[in-house]
Amino acid sequence: MTITTIILSALLMLAFLGAGVGKLRRAEPVTGTLEGLGVTPGLQQLVGALEVLGALGVLIGLWLQPLGILAAVGLVLMMIGAIIFHVRAHDTVKNSVGALVLLAFSGLVLSLQLVIA
């Protein structure tokens, strides 16, 4: 495992842990944005839980690589879903940048995990 993979995995874990906890706590800036995209409160809770689990999976994946790979795949798929919600809602690129950055970041960590597999 390279130091780059460890650092980027830890940063990805922190990003998704923060995003997931915000959704689970129903933090106002988060819920307002998601409701504007057509995401129901139940789906927000599900996404928040999956983001927290994905974050933990990426962290644990530093020791159990198959779990890290699966968690990163899950996070990539979730961000693809997020982008689909942004596109369907005709959201601006400015409002969609977070999902795009997290998609790229998740994809990078996934590729690093696969290269060292």
From TrEMBL:
Segments spanning the bilayer are: 67-85, 97-116
- Respond yes or no to whether keyword Transmembrane is given for this record: yes
Recite the UniProt keywords alphabetically.
Membrane, Transmembrane, Transmembrane helix
Pfam families reported in the protein's UniProt record: DoxX_2
UniProt xrefs under InterPro entries:
DoxX (IPR032808)
Q: How does it sit in the membrane?
A: Multi-pass membrane protein
Which cell locations does it reside in? Membrane
* Superkingdom of origin organism: Bacteria
Task: Classify the main location.
Answer: membrane
Q: State what protein this is by name.
A: DoxX family protein
